[in-house]
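Practice problem: predict the structure.
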Amino acid sequence: MTSPQRGLYGSAIGANMARAGTAEVFGTFLLVFSGTAVAVAGALSRSIAGQPADSLAVGLAFGLVLIALVTALGHVSGAHLNPAVTLALAATGKFPWRYAPAYVLAQLLGAVLASLAVWATYGSLARVRASLGATVPSTGTSATQVLLVEVLITFLLVLVIVSVATDDRVPAAAVGPAVGFALAAAVLVGGPVSGGAVNPARAVGPMIVSGTFTDWWTYLLGPVVGAVLAAMAYDRFLARASTPEPSSTPDPASGSWGSPDQVDPAAGTGSRL
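Answer:
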């Protein structure tokens, strides 16, 4: 009997799809709820510790909760929490295509439930005035610009995810913070242009519940393209690089760097080049 394929953060792919799917619903719900709730609070000028939330708070909310969710659920489902991540992993053979539809549906369900929860938490004004935190292009921004920025910021996020979560050379303690900080940076960079979706589920959930569908296709296509490009770049090029070996002083005769364990026969025992 073959063992299950290893997924992100040490998870076992296909070992228990019911449990993994449930984790994706819960995780995406908590990710989208946390970030969009702070975005809605800012749009409604609600105070957080004395002052209304601002764009910095939104990026931090998404990033910090992702650190927690990766740590809490990574070993259960791989904590994709993002259809773009799932599709990128499938495109590079790191995740079976047969499981991708279940993961994507679970993520979309979690996002829709999160938007309903934000609506219930803040009331009708959250839907009417803040569109439940739906991502929309900023004033004067074209669909092409939105598409470009979503490709770029998702490339950033997914490159970090696939590099730290699939490579044993990365210290385990660094994985959660690296992924969370990458998401925070992506949201902060993309926010002034596209709203910083980085995640089709995060975009679609508030869109469906609030009825806001401005340039909706860019928030689906951009993250998927950026994620697939990042996963392929790491899989085809970066993952094949070996860790540089330590070296000492150069060999005067050849000009090359010698190994720390290379001994100069003429110098006697204990002398290293």
